[in-house]
Amino acid sequence: SSVLNLLHRFGQRRRLRFALPRRYQFGYPRPFRAERVKGFGPRAPPFDIICHHMRFDRREVQRVMPNDTFYFSIIRDPAAAAASAFAYYRSIAPAFRNAPSLRSFLEAPERFYRAGQRGNHYAKNLQWFDFGLPPPRDSRALERALASVDRTFAMVMVAEHFDESLVLLREALCWPEDAVTAFAHNSRAADGVPALSPAQSQRLRLWNALDWALYTHVNRSFWRRVEAFGASRMEAEVSRLRRRREAASRRCLQGGGPVPAPSISDGRLRPFQPPGRARILGYQLRAGLEGEERERCARMVTPELQYKDILDRDQFGNGTGRE
Protein backbone atom coordinates (compact mmCIF):
# COMPACT_ATOMS: atom_id res chain seq x y z
CA SER A 1 0.00 0.00 0.00
CA SER A 2 2.88 2.39 0.69
CA VAL A 3 4.38 1.65 -2.72
CA LEU A 4 0.96 2.08 -4.32
CA ASN A 5 0.69 5.56 -2.85
CA LEU A 6 3.98 6.76 -4.26
CA LEU A 7 3.13 5.27 -7.68
CA HIS A 8 -0.30 6.92 -7.58
CA ARG A 9 1.23 10.30 -6.76
CA PHE A 10 4.04 10.01 -9.30
CA GLY A 11 1.68 9.03 -12.11
CA GLN A 12 -1.06 11.51 -11.30
CA ARG A 13 1.33 14.44 -11.06
CA ARG A 14 2.76 13.62 -14.49
CA ARG A 15 -0.61 12.75 -16.06
CA LEU A 16 0.45 9.17 -16.78
CA ARG A 17 -2.13 6.60 -17.80
CA PHE A 18 -2.91 3.87 -15.27
CA ALA A 19 -4.09 0.37 -16.12
CA LEU A 20 -6.90 0.25 -13.56
CA PRO A 21 -9.12 -2.61 -12.43
CA ARG A 22 -12.82 -2.23 -13.10
CA ARG A 23 -13.38 -2.36 -9.35
CA TYR A 24 -10.47 -2.62 -6.90
CA GLN A 25 -8.66 -5.82 -7.90
CA PHE A 26 -8.00 -7.60 -11.18
CA GLY A 27 -10.28 -10.57 -10.55
CA TYR A 28 -8.14 -11.77 -7.64
CA PRO A 29 -7.48 -14.54 -6.65
CA ARG A 30 -7.79 -15.68 -10.26
CA PRO A 31 -4.69 -14.98 -12.39
CA PHE A 32 -4.52 -11.57 -14.02
CA ARG A 33 -6.11 -11.18 -17.45
CA ALA A 34 -5.71 -8.18 -19.73
CA GLU A 35 -9.46 -7.96 -20.28
CA ARG A 36 -9.93 -7.04 -16.63
CA VAL A 37 -8.21 -3.69 -17.24
CA LYS A 38 -10.69 -0.87 -17.65
CA GLY A 39 -10.37 0.62 -21.11
CA PHE A 40 -8.14 -2.15 -22.50
CA GLY A 41 -8.59 -2.86 -26.19
CA PRO A 42 -6.85 -2.80 -29.57
CA ARG A 43 -7.55 0.92 -30.05
CA ALA A 44 -6.93 2.02 -26.46
CA PRO A 45 -4.13 4.50 -25.72
CA PRO A 46 -1.03 2.89 -24.19
CA PHE A 47 -0.78 2.47 -20.43
CA ASP A 48 2.16 3.73 -18.36
CA ILE A 49 1.62 2.16 -14.92
CA ILE A 50 -0.06 -0.97 -13.61
CA CYS A 51 0.17 -1.35 -9.85
CA HIS A 52 -3.01 -2.69 -8.25
CA HIS A 53 -3.30 -6.03 -6.52
CA MET A 54 -3.23 -9.07 -8.77
CA ARG A 55 -2.10 -12.64 -9.06
CA PHE A 56 0.70 -12.03 -11.51
CA ASP A 57 0.68 -13.52 -15.00
CA ARG A 58 3.52 -12.15 -17.08
CA ARG A 59 2.09 -12.95 -20.49
CA GLU A 60 -1.20 -11.27 -19.71
CA VAL A 61 0.45 -8.20 -18.20
CA GLN A 62 2.63 -7.91 -21.30
CA ARG A 63 -0.54 -7.64 -23.39
CA VAL A 64 -1.30 -4.44 -21.48
CA MET A 65 2.09 -2.84 -20.85
CA PRO A 66 4.85 -1.63 -23.22
CA ASN A 67 7.83 -3.86 -23.99
CA ASP A 68 10.22 -1.65 -22.01
CA THR A 69 8.18 -1.82 -18.78
CA PHE A 70 10.21 -1.84 -15.55
CA TYR A 71 8.80 -4.64 -13.39
CA PHE A 72 9.30 -4.49 -9.65
CA SER A 73 7.58 -5.89 -6.58
CA ILE A 74 8.01 -6.20 -2.82
CA ILE A 75 8.31 -9.17 -0.48
CA ARG A 76 8.09 -9.60 3.28
CA ASP A 77 9.46 -12.07 5.82
CA PRO A 78 6.92 -14.93 5.63
CA ALA A 79 6.62 -15.09 9.42
CA ALA A 80 5.47 -11.48 9.68
CA ALA A 81 3.41 -11.74 6.50
CA ALA A 82 1.59 -14.86 7.72
CA ALA A 83 0.86 -13.40 11.15
CA SER A 84 -0.54 -10.30 9.48
CA ALA A 85 -2.60 -12.43 7.08
CA PHE A 86 -4.07 -14.34 10.02
CA ALA A 87 -5.40 -11.09 11.49
CA TYR A 88 -6.41 -9.46 8.20
CA TYR A 89 -7.97 -12.43 6.36
CA ARG A 90 -9.29 -14.47 9.26
CA SER A 91 -12.91 -14.07 8.21
CA ILE A 92 -12.08 -15.06 4.61
CA ALA A 93 -9.69 -18.02 4.94
CA PRO A 94 -11.37 -21.13 6.39
CA ALA A 95 -8.03 -22.38 7.73
CA PHE A 96 -7.70 -19.24 9.84
CA ARG A 97 -11.39 -18.90 10.69
CA ASN A 98 -11.59 -22.42 12.09
CA ALA A 99 -8.55 -21.99 14.33
CA PRO A 100 -9.27 -20.55 17.80
CA SER A 101 -6.04 -18.53 17.67
CA LEU A 102 -2.79 -18.18 15.77
CA ARG A 103 -1.13 -20.26 18.45
CA SER A 104 -3.64 -23.07 17.90
CA PHE A 105 -3.16 -22.85 14.15
CA LEU A 106 0.62 -23.13 14.49
CA GLU A 107 0.39 -26.17 16.74
CA ALA A 108 -1.27 -28.19 13.95
CA PRO A 109 -1.92 -26.20 10.74
CA GLU A 110 -2.81 -29.36 8.80
CA ARG A 111 -5.77 -29.79 11.12
CA PHE A 112 -7.35 -26.58 9.79
CA TYR A 113 -5.92 -26.24 6.27
CA ARG A 114 -7.45 -27.85 3.19
CA ALA A 115 -5.61 -27.17 -0.08
CA GLY A 116 -7.83 -25.76 -2.80
CA GLN A 117 -10.58 -24.63 -0.44
CA ARG A 118 -11.84 -21.18 -1.39
CA GLY A 119 -9.94 -18.51 0.54
CA ASN A 120 -7.20 -20.82 1.80
CA HIS A 121 -4.61 -19.38 -0.56
CA TYR A 122 -4.28 -16.71 2.15
CA ALA A 123 -3.23 -19.37 4.67
CA LYS A 124 -0.15 -20.88 3.02
CA ASN A 125 2.56 -19.50 0.71
CA LEU A 126 0.52 -16.41 -0.13
CA GLN A 127 3.44 -14.50 -1.65
CA TRP A 128 4.41 -17.39 -3.91
CA PHE A 129 0.77 -17.52 -4.99
CA ASP A 130 0.61 -13.77 -5.70
CA PHE A 131 3.79 -13.92 -7.80
CA GLY A 132 1.89 -16.42 -9.97
CA LEU A 133 4.48 -19.15 -9.44
CA PRO A 134 3.51 -22.81 -9.94
CA PRO A 135 3.86 -25.27 -7.04
CA PRO A 136 7.24 -26.96 -7.66
CA ARG A 137 7.41 -30.73 -7.78
CA ASP A 138 11.09 -30.91 -6.88
CA SER A 139 14.17 -28.79 -6.16
CA ARG A 140 14.89 -28.24 -9.86
CA ALA A 141 11.41 -26.86 -10.43
CA LEU A 142 11.89 -24.62 -7.41
CA GLU A 143 15.11 -23.22 -8.86
CA ARG A 144 13.43 -22.64 -12.22
CA ALA A 145 10.64 -20.70 -10.53
CA LEU A 146 13.11 -18.51 -8.65
CA ALA A 147 15.08 -17.92 -11.84
CA SER A 148 11.87 -16.78 -13.55
CA VAL A 149 11.44 -14.13 -10.85
CA ASP A 150 14.96 -12.87 -11.58
CA ARG A 151 14.23 -12.71 -15.31
CA THR A 152 10.91 -10.92 -14.92
CA PHE A 153 11.49 -8.42 -12.13
CA ALA A 154 14.22 -5.83 -12.44
CA MET A 155 13.94 -5.33 -8.70
CA VAL A 156 12.18 -6.87 -5.71
CA MET A 157 12.02 -4.65 -2.65
CA VAL A 158 12.30 -6.08 0.88
CA ALA A 159 9.71 -4.79 3.34
CA GLU A 160 12.01 -5.19 6.34
CA HIS A 161 14.44 -2.81 4.62
CA PHE A 162 11.89 -0.51 3.08
CA ASP A 163 13.94 2.69 3.13
CA GLU A 164 16.95 1.02 1.54
CA SER A 165 14.57 -0.40 -1.06
CA LEU A 166 13.21 3.06 -1.83
CA VAL A 167 16.73 4.40 -2.33
CA LEU A 168 17.51 1.61 -4.80
CA LEU A 169 14.19 2.09 -6.57
CA ARG A 170 14.78 5.82 -6.96
CA GLU A 171 18.20 5.20 -8.47
CA ALA A 172 16.90 2.52 -10.84
CA LEU A 173 14.08 4.73 -12.12
CA CYS A 174 16.00 8.05 -11.99
CA TRP A 175 13.23 9.58 -9.88
CA PRO A 176 13.48 12.81 -7.87
CA GLU A 177 13.71 12.61 -4.08
CA ASP A 178 10.16 13.76 -3.44
CA ALA A 179 8.81 10.84 -5.50
CA VAL A 180 9.88 8.33 -2.83
CA THR A 181 9.07 10.44 0.22
CA ALA A 182 6.10 8.52 1.56
CA PHE A 183 4.26 7.59 4.74
CA ALA A 184 3.55 4.00 5.75
CA HIS A 185 0.11 2.86 4.61
CA ASN A 186 -2.05 -0.04 5.76
CA SER A 187 -0.23 -0.31 9.08
CA ARG A 188 -2.00 -2.10 11.92
CA ALA A 189 -2.67 -0.97 15.45
CA ALA A 190 -0.21 -2.60 17.85
CA ASP A 191 -2.93 -4.62 19.57
CA GLY A 192 -4.09 -6.05 16.24
CA VAL A 193 -0.81 -7.75 15.29
CA PRO A 194 0.19 -10.73 17.43
CA ALA A 195 3.72 -10.69 18.81
CA LEU A 196 5.63 -13.74 17.61
CA SER A 197 8.12 -15.74 19.60
CA PRO A 198 11.23 -16.99 17.76
CA ALA A 199 9.72 -20.50 17.78
CA GLN A 200 6.46 -19.26 16.27
CA SER A 201 8.32 -17.34 13.58
CA GLN A 202 10.23 -20.48 12.70
CA ARG A 203 7.02 -22.53 12.49
CA LEU A 204 5.45 -19.95 10.18
CA ARG A 205 8.49 -20.01 7.90
CA LEU A 206 8.38 -23.81 7.78
CA TRP A 207 4.65 -23.81 7.04
CA ASN A 208 5.22 -21.20 4.31
CA ALA A 209 8.31 -22.94 2.94
CA LEU A 210 7.89 -21.68 -0.62
CA ASP A 211 7.52 -18.11 0.59
CA TRP A 212 10.65 -18.59 2.69
CA ALA A 213 12.58 -19.90 -0.32
CA LEU A 214 11.43 -16.89 -2.35
CA TYR A 215 12.26 -14.46 0.45
CA THR A 216 15.77 -15.79 1.08
CA HIS A 217 16.50 -15.82 -2.66
CA VAL A 218 15.34 -12.23 -3.11
CA ASN A 219 17.06 -11.13 0.09
CA ARG A 220 20.44 -12.34 -1.18
CA SER A 221 19.97 -10.47 -4.45
CA PHE A 222 18.86 -7.38 -2.57
CA TRP A 223 21.99 -7.20 -0.43
CA ARG A 224 24.23 -7.75 -3.43
CA ARG A 225 22.53 -4.72 -4.92
CA VAL A 226 23.07 -2.72 -1.72
CA GLU A 227 26.74 -3.71 -1.72
CA ALA A 228 27.12 -2.52 -5.31
CA PHE A 229 25.41 0.75 -4.37
CA GLY A 230 27.90 1.29 -1.54
CA ALA A 231 27.34 0.96 2.21
CA SER A 232 28.33 4.51 3.17
CA ARG A 233 26.38 5.98 0.28
CA MET A 234 23.33 3.92 1.27
CA GLU A 235 23.57 5.07 4.88
CA ALA A 236 23.68 8.70 3.78
CA GLU A 237 20.76 8.31 1.35
CA VAL A 238 18.58 6.53 3.93
CA SER A 239 19.28 9.28 6.48
CA ARG A 240 18.35 11.89 3.92
CA LEU A 241 15.13 10.05 3.03
CA ARG A 242 14.12 9.78 6.68
CA ARG A 243 14.75 13.48 7.28
CA ARG A 244 12.51 14.33 4.34
CA ARG A 245 9.79 12.02 5.69
CA GLU A 246 10.04 13.55 9.16
CA ALA A 247 9.77 17.03 7.68
CA ALA A 248 6.69 15.97 5.70
CA SER A 249 5.17 14.50 8.87
CA ARG A 250 5.63 17.78 10.74
CA ARG A 251 4.24 19.75 7.82
CA CYS A 252 1.24 17.51 7.04
CA LEU A 253 0.13 15.41 9.98
CA GLN A 254 -1.79 16.10 13.14
CA GLY A 255 0.32 14.49 15.85
CA GLY A 256 3.05 13.57 13.38
CA GLY A 257 2.02 9.94 12.83
CA PRO A 258 -0.72 7.38 12.15
CA VAL A 259 -3.97 7.38 14.13
CA PRO A 260 -7.00 5.05 14.42
CA ALA A 261 -9.50 5.48 11.59
CA PRO A 262 -12.30 6.89 13.81
CA SER A 263 -9.98 9.79 14.71
CA ILE A 264 -9.80 10.92 11.06
CA SER A 265 -12.37 13.66 10.46
CA ASP A 266 -12.24 13.54 6.64
CA GLY A 267 -14.00 10.36 5.53
CA ARG A 268 -12.11 10.41 2.23
CA LEU A 269 -8.90 9.78 4.17
CA ARG A 270 -10.14 6.91 6.36
CA PRO A 271 -8.62 3.55 5.38
CA PHE A 272 -10.78 0.51 4.73
CA GLN A 273 -11.29 -1.64 7.83
CA PRO A 274 -11.35 -5.39 7.06
CA PRO A 275 -13.74 -7.67 8.94
CA GLY A 276 -12.04 -9.21 11.94
CA ARG A 277 -9.61 -7.94 14.53
CA ALA A 278 -7.13 -6.05 12.35
CA ARG A 279 -7.48 -2.29 12.83
CA ILE A 280 -5.90 -0.30 10.01
CA LEU A 281 -4.42 3.08 10.88
CA GLY A 282 -4.54 6.21 8.77
CA TYR A 283 -3.62 9.89 9.00
CA GLN A 284 -5.31 13.07 10.19
CA LEU A 285 -4.16 16.17 8.32
CA ARG A 286 -2.86 19.06 10.36
CA ALA A 287 -5.35 21.87 10.85
CA GLY A 288 -4.73 25.05 8.88
CA LEU A 289 -3.38 23.47 5.69
CA GLU A 290 -4.63 25.26 2.60
CA GLY A 291 -4.38 25.24 -1.17
CA GLU A 292 -1.57 23.36 -2.85
CA GLU A 293 0.04 22.39 0.45
CA ARG A 294 -3.13 20.70 1.66
CA GLU A 295 -3.56 18.95 -1.68
CA ARG A 296 0.02 17.69 -1.61
CA CYS A 297 -0.33 16.42 1.95
CA ALA A 298 -3.73 14.86 1.23
CA ARG A 299 -2.29 12.87 -1.65
CA MET A 300 0.40 11.48 0.64
CA VAL A 301 -2.19 10.13 3.08
CA THR A 302 -5.03 9.09 0.75
CA PRO A 303 -5.71 5.34 1.17
CA GLU A 304 -5.36 3.09 -1.86
CA LEU A 305 -9.08 2.49 -2.49
CA GLN A 306 -9.96 6.18 -2.46
CA TYR A 307 -6.92 7.03 -4.58
CA LYS A 308 -7.93 4.43 -7.14
CA ASP A 309 -11.32 6.15 -7.41
CA ILE A 310 -9.59 9.51 -7.95
CA LEU A 311 -7.47 8.06 -10.77
CA ASP A 312 -10.56 6.43 -12.27
CA ARG A 313 -12.33 9.80 -12.37
CA ASP A 314 -9.24 11.43 -13.87
CA GLN A 315 -9.17 8.94 -16.74
CA PHE A 316 -12.79 8.00 -17.31
CA GLY A 317 -15.02 10.44 -15.44
CA ASN A 318 -15.82 14.12 -15.56
CA GLY A 319 -13.75 15.01 -12.52
CA THR A 320 -10.13 16.09 -12.46
CA GLY A 321 -9.10 14.54 -9.17
CA ARG A 322 -10.17 15.20 -5.61
CA GLU A 323 -13.67 16.57 -5.24
From TrEMBL:
Its main location: Golgi. GO terms for biological process: glycolipid biosynthetic process. GO terms for cellular component: Golgi membrane. The keyword Transmembrane applies. Keywords: Glycoprotein, Golgi apparatus, Membrane, Signal-anchor, Transferase, Transmembrane, Transmembrane helix. Residues 249-270 are annotated as: Disordered. Gene3D superfamilies: P-loop containing nucleotide triphosphate hydrolases. Belongs to the galactose-3-O-sulfotransferase family. This is Galactose-3-O-sulfotransferase 4.
